[in-house]
Amino acid sequence: MLLEDPPSTLISHTISNFNIQPDKLAVSRISESLSTLNQARDLRLREAETSLKKLSRTLSTLSSQHNELVSSHSSSAHASEISRLDTQKFRIAKGVSDLEMETERLQSQLQELRGRLEELEIQGVDGAEIKEGGAVDDEVLLRLKVYRSLGIEIERDGDKWGRVVVRNDRKGDVHVVNVDNRKFSRFWYANYFWEHL
């Protein structure tokens, strides 16, 4: 009878009939997989914590820089500086416009004076055309007359023209210039005279 067999024999036959070895191997594999997963999860957690600490430090640095910039920036000072620069810009633009108008006026005056000079060079001192015989003397006299009409008087210093008096009746100015071609060019003197007319 089955119950008459010793229990050890029954247990041995029961164990051999169930064959639990594959289940034990499966449990062992599952246990290893769980251990690997736990290790991977711990590693990812450590990486996430490290990244979070780094981001926290960066945020703290940027926040302190932002606070410094906000505290150092004054909106009223900025507005006053913008207003000052705008005023300066408009003042400069007005100055440039005035200078352009003055330049145009002086250019038109220069053209008129050149036209008058050409007319006077064509005519003689008495209003007649210059004849070839006394052309050089008449030309010098004519130029002196034109210069005098502009407010420029030239005085002789020996055999040279050495001193020039420039009068500006509008401003009430008188400038006396000793002409020395060794110091300055004729171009410089011409510009100087035009500036003070």
UniProtKB/TrEMBL annotation:
Main location (coarse class): cytoplasm
Keywords carried by this UniProt record: Cell cycle, Cell division, Centromere, Chromosome, Coiled coil, Kinetochore, Mitosis, Nucleus
Pfam families: Spc24
Highest taxon listed in the record's lineage: Eukaryota
GO term, biological process aspect, one: cell division
InterPro entries, sorted: Ndc80_Spc24, Spc24_Fungi_globular_sf
Cell compartments where the protein resides: Cytoplasm, Cytoskeleton, Microtubule organizing center; Nucleus; Chromosome, Centromere, Kinetochore
Entry-linked CDD domains: RWD_Spc24
GO cellular component annotations of the record: microtubule organizing center; Ndc80 complex; nucleus
PANTHER family documented for this protein: KINETOCHORE PROTEIN SPC24, PTHR22142
Name this protein carries in UniProt: Kinetochore protein Spc24
Organism ancestry: Eukaryota, Fungi, Dikarya, Ascomycota, Pezizomycotina
